Amino acid sequence: MSRYFALLLALIPLISAVMGIKLMRDTVFAILNAPIPSLWLQFLIGVLAFTLGIYIFGGFVLHRDRKRNKVQARFKK
Known about the structure:
By secondary structure, this protein is mainly alpha-helical. The chain has one domain. It has two helices and no strands. α1 (about 1-30) runs antiparallel to α2. The longest helix has 29 residues, at about 40-65. The two termini are about 30 Å apart.
């Protein structure tokens, strides 16, 4: 049960990163999505969603690997 919960928690930031990529791609092709008023704001939201999603997922993986002692010496606390 806890593995499924951990998988769901890992998928949320990944979905955010995917949506960020989609927003940036739509901006490059000049496709404006409905709730966002301008293209530059849409691109900025996409960049933020992508970086935040990757940052959270990377932190999750690093925390898990530190717990299992599977990281290099420079990443240990």
